[in-house]
Amino acid sequence: MNAILPPDREESTAERWARFRPIDGAEAYVDSLRGRAVTVYLFGERVAEPVDHPVIRPSINALAATYDLARDEPALATAHSPLIDAPVNRFLHIPTCPEDLVLKNRMQRRLGQLTGTCFQRCAGLDTISVLHSITYDIDEAHGTRYHERYLAFLKEAQRHNVIIGAGMTDPKGDRSRRPHEQDDPDLFLHVTRRTERGLYVTGAKAHMTGGLNSHWICVMPTMNLSEADRDYAVVGLVPGDAPGLTYIYGRQSCDTRALEGGEIDQGNAHYGGQETLVVFDEVFIPWEHVLMDGEYEFAQAMVSRFTAYHRASYVCKTGLGDVMVGAAAAIAEYNGADKASHIRDKLVEMTHLNETIFSSGIASSHEAKPLASGAWINDEMLSNVCKHNVTRFPYEIARFAQDLAGGLMVTLPSEADFKHEEAGPLLAKYLRGRSDIPVETRTRMLRLIENMTLGRNAVGYLTESLHGAGSPQAQRIQILRGMDLPRKKAYAERLAGIDVIATDAGD
Ligand code: SF4
Ligand code: FE
User: Fold this and answer.
1) Domain count of the chain?
2) pLDDT, tens digit, for every residue of 457-493?
3) How far apart are the CA of 37 and the centre of ligand 2, in A?
C-alpha cells in the first residue's frame, strides 16, 4: 500500500490540474490515459500499461466514442456552457432546462447504438449535475462555500474536457449495520484526518463504472447518514492517478476471448464496459476540492437526487436494445426466416418493450423540475419507472434475440476452426444459412447476440440493467414513497359516492 504523503507533497488544486492538457478528441483522450502512475491488477498481475491491455482497451474505446460523437454530431453531444461561454461536451454540461435532459437521453441512446455497451460516462455527468444543487443547498444552510469551489472545478473540467467518474458505491460490509457500526471502518469510505491543506480518505468504491478510464473520481456517500457517521459524509474530487489509489479490475464473462488473438469470437471486439474496485488508502484531497465534509443531513438528498438523474440515464439501454432488435432481424434474414409472421411479431414485441423503456425515461426529462441552484432535475417517479423497466425488459428482449438466433449461437465452433485448413471448409458447407449469405456474416451476427446476452456486453445489457443505479427493490421503495395513495383513494371514493370526510378524518 502507498505510504501517506508528507505534508509538503499535499498537492494544490493547480498542481492537480497541471497533469492534464485539454483533450480535443478521441485520440487525445486515449493518449491522456497513457503513462499514468496507476496501480492496476487484472488476472493476478499488475498491469504495466492499461491502455494497451487487450481486455481493457475496448472499455477505453467506448469512452472515446463520447469524444467522437461530440465531433460528429455536435447538436446532440455538445452544449453551450454559460460558465466558460464556450461549447462543451454534453457529458460536462449542467442541465438548466428540460431540453438539456431530453438531449442527454437522446445522446445516451445514440451512444448505445454506436457501442453496444456501457460507455461509462453518465454517472459522472449525473454526479456533477447533482452537486450543482447539493453544494448550493449546503451553503444556504451552513454558510459554507462549497458551491464556489464546485463551479471553479467544473470550469476547469469543461476547459480540459475530462472524464469524471462517479465513486459512489461503498462495499457496505454487514448490511444490517450503519457505516460507523461496521467492524472494519473502511467498509464505507471516510475521512481519516484533516490538515491545514485538506483531508485524507480511506475506503473503497465498488464496481465503479469506468473508474480506471476516468481523469477524476468524485467520491460521495452511498446512502443516508446519521450524526455518528459524520466522517463518512464526504464529497471530494480525486485525480485518477492520485497516490494511494489501487484499481482491481472486474473480469467479465468471456473476457479472455480478447486474449485469443481473433476478433469474430468476441462478438463486439471494439467496445466493452468496465467496472473496477477502487481502493483509497489515505488519499489526499485539498480543501478546494472538498464539496462536503460532515454535513451528513444532505447525504439522503444527494443520493435521491442522483438516482432521479441516473435512473433516467438508463435509456442508454434502449440504444443497446436497438442493436438487439437489429441483430435479431438480421439473423432471421440470414436464416431465411424473416418473412414468417411469428418472427415479425417477435420483432414488434422487442421494439415495443424497448420503446416503453425510452418513453418513461424521456418523459421524466420532459417533466423535469428546477432546483434552487438553477439546475433542473428529472421527475423522480418517471425516472424510477424507467429504471424499473430496465431491470426487466432487456431480459425479455434478449430472450427474443436468442429465440430468433437459434441454438447455433451457443454451439458454434471457434474462429480458429473456421480458419482451419480441413475443418474450415466443412464448416463453410454445413453452417451456411441462406446460400447468398457468407457463413462468416452469419457467424459474426450470432457472436454479437452471444456477446450481448451471454458474453462481455451482457454485463452492460443485462446484469447492469438489473443492479446498476440501484437494484429493483430500490426503485420499488421510491415508487412506494411517491405513489400518493391517499389522493388516488380520494379520486375513487368521490366517484363511488363515498363520504371522503368520514373515511379520512381531519383531512
Ligand atoms: Fe451510462 Fe448506461 Fe453505462 Fe450507466 S450503464 S454509465 S447510464 S451507459
Ligand atoms: Fe451504470
Assistant:
1) 2
2) 999 999 999 999 999 999 999 999 999 999 999 999 9
3) 26
